[in-house]
């Protein structure tokens, strides 16, 4: 038990509560805070040792958020009114301080059981309550079960032989030692070029002897454009924050910007070049999410953007071999159908002779030895530290991993074996009184986290309040509503270029996982309307009792 966690019954066995929330990141804290205000007794079960969710787990070198503040924070005035950031894109240490500040304001920890991993759960029909079991054998009974476990709760490892034989240090990014790893003067291998791999490579290259990046797919990185922020300039902007937070929910991805109302070829080549230049130079996701509105729909438009990106990027890479691996002339996939990482010196640090990139599509890894990594061309490269930045069984992996059973005793992992079915991306047929956010078939990976959890959180909270007000003890999604939602999620996605790319958005990063769109691609405003329509029409798509 965690001595800092608060009141004495936090770790009690046979806990009875109104609402059991799993996960103490942005989503879980929001739900707890708002539901408490409505008088519900709430408890959070959290597998980690502190608040922050992904920012509790992510402490690998260079871990930093890629949505800028204040877009990446709560809209709650009691949190932002006396909080200031030091950088536009804060690192994990500052994000952890933000959660300390949140704790000071909202007093969350007294109702959190840390070090508590949920391993079983079923809905008990006679009492209309969830019975939840934890890894260390405690049980809890709760009217509602709310899952706020995020999209990256189950880490993914490559299936290479010998991973356990390596004699140096080897860590997955999401399980990096909290005290850090001293990489000074060491030879580092970074496996994977998602946002995580790019960040680890950039940061470790500052002190390591060498950094070798193992790349399967080139990341179409965009410039971060980090900026130091002063307290004065933030203070001045705060009177505009309420409007700012309202406006962020009117954009496709819950950001401060949106796609422009023009198609790529509406502009002349000169206008287009100038537009691309400006968006690229602004940094962050502007070249992605504030690009022409046909970027993610039209192949030719997308290719135009890719060619611009490749021109800009190739010009920065001095070695022709590295250039063709990192920024090939032919796109590895449509631009933006995998999340672009944000970089500051990724290509520059790879220009240095001691650092290298290995194309593991051309020469796959065959084994990890005691001293290093062997590829199919017979080369053994030796290392002191291996950083596995190989991602997650994203979106569905965490929820399938909790031993949750439906009313007929079927596990969620079984229900979702051949594909994912949800209602509104927040509820599942056969799982009464259970809701989840920032997960399957919600706006999740296509949205800014705090924006998404506030939209979904408010809907869940309003729904639970309605159930209490109307003395309803039981709510379940219908099978028909699930079929309909899956159809919508698929149709929206099929209009875009996303299905053509093997990404974790499509479940394609995990061997054997069904290939399907795991996120709602209609944008946050349309999503919110769909959810509100259901609630306002007497909880359409649900049965209640
Ligand atoms: O994971 P990823 P991540 N053999 O899945 C490669 C958020 N995030 O941890 O592309 C060889 O994106 C894989 O290759 P490929 C953000 O939303 C945000 O980086 O599948 N390689 C890929 O290159 C992000 O999208 C921030 O061909 C293997 C990499 O590993 C999400 O989290 C920071 C492999 C995995 O990339 C996940 O990011 C970090 C194998 N067997 C994360 N398996 C910020 O806010 C996988 N790969 C900045």
Short structural description:
Mean pLDDT is 96; it is low at 1-8. The protein contains 17 helices and 19 strands.
Structure description:
With 545 residues, the chain is an alpha/beta fold. Helices cover 30% and strands 15% of the residues. A hairpin with a 4-residue loop joins β5 and β6. The chain is globular and about 70 Å long. The N terminus is likely disordered. The chain binds 3-acetylpyridine adenine dinucleotide (N01). The site of 3-acetylpyridine adenine dinucleotide (N01) has 23 residues, from α5. The site of 3-acetylpyridine adenine dinucleotide has 23 residues, from α5.
Percent strand equals 15-25%
Helix content: 25-40%
Category from helices, strands and their pairing: alpha/beta
How far do the termini sit from each other? 38 Å
Q: Give the number of helices.
A: 17
Largest sheet: 7 strands, mixed
Give unreliable regions as ranges.
1-8
**Overall body shape:** globular
Roughly how many Å is the radius of gyration? 23 Å
Mean pLDDT: 96
Query: Which hetero compounds are present in the coordinates?
Result: 3-acetylpyridine adenine dinucleotide
The total strand number stands at 19
Keywords: FAD, Flavoprotein, Monooxygenase, NADP, Oxidoreductase
GO molecular function: flavin adenine dinucleotide binding; N,N-dimethylaniline monooxygenase activity; NADP binding
Organism: Pleomassaria siparia CBS 279.74
InterPro entries: FAD-binding_Monooxygenases, FAD/NAD-bd_sf, Flavin_mOase-like
């Amino acid at each position: 038990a965690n001595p800092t966690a608060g009141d004495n019954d936090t770790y009690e066995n046979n806990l009875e509560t109104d609402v059991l929330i799993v996960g103490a990141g942005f989503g879980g804290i929001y739900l707890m805070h708002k539901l408490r205000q409505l008088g519900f007794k709430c408890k959070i079960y959290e597998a980690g040792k502190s608040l922050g969710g992904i920012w509790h787990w992510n402490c690998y070198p260079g871990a930093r958020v890629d949505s800028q503040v204040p877009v990446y924070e709560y809209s709650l005035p009691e949190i932002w009114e006396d909080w200031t950031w030091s950088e536009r894109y804060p690192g994990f240490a500052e994000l952890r301080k933000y959660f300390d500040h949140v704790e000071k304001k909202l007093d969350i920890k007294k109702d959190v059981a840390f070090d508590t991993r949920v391993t079983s759960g079923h809905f008990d029909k006679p009492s209309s309550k969830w019975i939840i079991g934890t890894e260390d054998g405690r049980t809890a009974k709760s009217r509602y079960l709310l899952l706020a476990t995020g999209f990256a709760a189950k880490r993914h490892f490559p299936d290479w032989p010998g991973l356990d034989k390596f004699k140096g240090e080897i860590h997955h990014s999401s399980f990096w030692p909290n005290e850090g790893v001293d990489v000074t003067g060491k030879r580092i291998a970074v496996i994977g070029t998602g946002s995580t791999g790019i960040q680890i490579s950039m940061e470790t290259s500052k002190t390591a002897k060498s950094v070798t990046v193992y790349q399967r797919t080139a990341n179409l990185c965009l410039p971060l454009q980090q900026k130091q922020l002063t307290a004065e300039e933030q203070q001045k902007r705060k009177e505009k924050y309420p409007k700012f937070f309202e406006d962020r929910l009117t954009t496709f991805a819950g950001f401060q910007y949106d796609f422009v109302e023009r198609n790529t070829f509406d502009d002349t080549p000169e206008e287009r070049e100038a537009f691309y230049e400006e968006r690229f130079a602004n940094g962050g996701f502007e070249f992605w999410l504030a690009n022409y509105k046909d970027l993610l729909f039209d192949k030719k438009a997308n290719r135009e953007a890719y060619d611009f990106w490749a021109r800009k990027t190739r010009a920065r890479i001095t070695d022709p071999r590295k250039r063709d691996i990192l920024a090939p002339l032919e796109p590895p996939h449509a631009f933006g159908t995998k999340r672009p990482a944000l970089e500051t010196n990724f290509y520059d640090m790879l220009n240095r002779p001691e650092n290298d990139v290995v194309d593991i599509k051309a020469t796959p890894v065959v084994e990890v030895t005691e001293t290093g990594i062997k590829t199919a061309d017979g080369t053994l490269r030796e290392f002191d530290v291996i950083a596995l930045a190989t991602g997650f069984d994203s979106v569905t992996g965490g929820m399938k991993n909790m031993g949750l059973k439906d009313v007929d005793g079927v596990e969620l992992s079984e229900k979702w074996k051949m594909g994912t079915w949800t209602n509104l991306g927040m509820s599942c047929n056969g799982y009464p009184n259970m809701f989840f956010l920032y997960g399957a078939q919600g706006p999740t990976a296509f949205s800014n986290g705090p924006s998404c959890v506030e939209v979904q959180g408010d809907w869940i909270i309003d729904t639970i309040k309605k159930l209490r007000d109307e003395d309803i003890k039981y709510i379940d999604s219908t099978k028909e509503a699930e079929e309909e939602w899956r159809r919508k999620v698929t149709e929206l996605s099929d209009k875009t270029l996303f299905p053509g790319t093997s990404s974790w958005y499509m479940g394609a990063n995990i061997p054997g996982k069904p290939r399907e769109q795991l996120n709602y691609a209609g944008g946050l405003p349309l999503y919110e309307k769909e959810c509100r329509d259901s609630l306002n029409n007497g909880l359409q798509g649900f049965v209640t009792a």
